[in-house]
Amino acid sequence: FVTFIFCRVFRLARIHVIAPRTFFQHQKDYLHMVVQRVWEKHQQKHLQHVRQQGVPITLAGDGRCDSMGHR
């Protein structure tokens, strides 16, 4: 709904923007892939630094990385 309002306001102001469908398609095709690659490089850099320290670590997670903060 909010996206529709913004698109309508831009159209009335004669400001050219891409359609929401196009944005979400680009996001799916390009942005998610790039964010994943950057995260993996960042993660590897930090893990390599920890390994060089020679201190054993344990990594754990609760598998709720996609939750929206619900408790």
Sheet having the most strands: none
* Sequence of secondary-structure elements: HH
What is the number of helices?
Answer: 2
User: What's the overall average pLDDT, rounded?
Assistant: 83
Structural class computed from helices and strand pairing: mainly alpha
| Helical fraction | 55-70%
Radius of gyration: 20 Å
Separation, N- and C-terminal Cα atoms: 27 Å
Q: In percent terms, what proportion of residues is strand? A: under 5%
Number of strands: 0
- Give the CA-based shape: elongated
Unreliable stretches (pLDDT < 50, length at least 5) are none
What report would you give on this structure?
The chain is mainly α. The protein has two helices and no strands. The protein has helices spanning about 1-10, 20-55. The radius of gyration is 20 Å and the shape is elongated. The model has no long low-confidence stretch (mean pLDDT about 85).
Write the layout of secondary structure elements.
Elements: H1 2-12, H2 20-53
Question: What descriptive keywords fit this protein?
Answer:
single chain; about 70 residues; mainly alpha; about 0% strand
